[in-house]
Amino acid sequence: MTPLESIMQMEPGISSRKADHIDLCVSGDVGFHAKTTLLDAVEFVHDALPELSLDDIDTSVELFGKRLRAPIIIAAMTGGTDRARSINRELAQIAEERGYGFGLGSQRAILKGQPRDTYEVRDVAPNALVLGNIGGVQARALSTSEVRSLVDDVGADALCVHLNPAMEIVQPEGDRDFVGVVDALERLVGELGVPVIAKETGCGLGARAVKKLAKAGVRHVDVSGAGGTSWVAVEAARAAGQVRTLGDALREWGVPTAASVMFAERARPRFKTIIATGGVGSGSDVAKAIALGAHAAGMARPVLQALVSGGRDGVVSFLNRVEAELRAVMLLVGARDVRDVQGVPVVLGPALERWAVESRRRRKK
User: Fold this and answer.
1) Among candidates 234, 294, 218, which has minimal Cα distance to 260?
2) Higher-confidence position of 20 and 104
3) Residue 278 burial by Cβ neighbours in a 10 Å radius (0-12, 13-18, 19+)
4) Kind of pairing between the strands at 42-44 and 346-348
């Protein structure tokens, strides 16, 4: 039996799990209760003489060979069900029209024999930056050519390899063995032929993880930090008994998004791309993440909630507010373009400063 065949025989309830994920992310109590992204601990220094016109502000960036109108990615959410297909296609089309990136949810369902069309978005988003997605444990079990076929199936420009040990150990049917994921990432970086993005799933990247990724040759990361959706809480809500108790105990686990960006920004060798996902919900959040070192920001749950509550118009209205706020912040700190935002002064609150001290200490080692 090949590694692909063994994966396809696992997890008979994957479609049900994906449906649960959507419902819980839309209306469930699955956010962090105490921990925040710490983007609220970043404060810009106002420039009363920006010498700029709002019309001159340039929010565009280049990411993985694609020009985006703004440093925004509608981040990975779902796949594997009919409802997921509708969500993916609607949001991918919006990303195409607005010049954003778009991330697909885990393509593990394809390995389980679920319909591939739940991930097909290229016909509605022919020019958008599209990010494929597979778990690190699955990437470990698959050959490079099998992983490449997942990329080609959806016409992805890059592949996110998601890292989710906290989520998996709380999931009743989840993985328990994470040995060899670093080696799989190193192999794919060298052999896959498209950019490989190491992506956490709501618990962030700390100093040790960043160091391992950089050493393995990974040059693109999505920090997906703590403070937004707690995927531990999502899985705890689905679980029962001892597993649910573990999920409740680990609900607040993780490195806040702002701290994760700082760890990634100070990595050596430097990462070429840092995406700040995890509790990003406004244009100000996007700007703060970029000021800390990110190149773009990803949004998932707030976009999904806007879609469910207000349809397409609800998503467009939400994203209009995000872009307007981003442009306003850029003007008020005197940043003509996104690169300028990375150089503006910021003041860090005490909670984030403690993480910053640890980040600097690790960098010296």
Assistant:
1) 294
2) 104
3) buried
4) antiparallel
Question: Domain 29-364's class?
Answer: alpha beta
Using DSSP, how many helices (H) and how many strands (E) does the chain show? 16, 12
Answer for the pair 331, 52: CB distance below 8 angstroms, yes or no: yes
Give the tokens for residue 325. 């706020």
Query: Is-above-0.70 flag for pTM?
Result: yes
Say what the alpha-carbon torsion angle 189, 193, 194, 200 is, to the nearest 10 degrees.
-30
**What are the CA-CA distances from residue 232 to residues 24, 149, 205, 208 (Å)?**
12, 30, 16, 21
How many angstroms separate the CA atoms of 208 and 158, rounded?
24
Amino acid at 42: V
Tens digit of pLDDT for each residue in 245-268?
888 899 999 999 999 999 999 999
Q: What span, in angstroms and rounded, lies between the C-alpha atoms of 291 and 238?
A: 37
Q: What is the residue whose two structure tokens read 């819980």?
A: 24
pLDDT of 188 above 90: yes
Rounded CA Rg of the chain: 19
Indicate if the pLDDT at residue 219 is higher than 80. yes
Domain assignments of the chain as residue spans, ordered by start: 29-364
Cβ proximity of 70 and 99 under 8 Å = yes
Q: Do 57 and 341 form a contact (C-beta atoms < 8 A)?
A: no
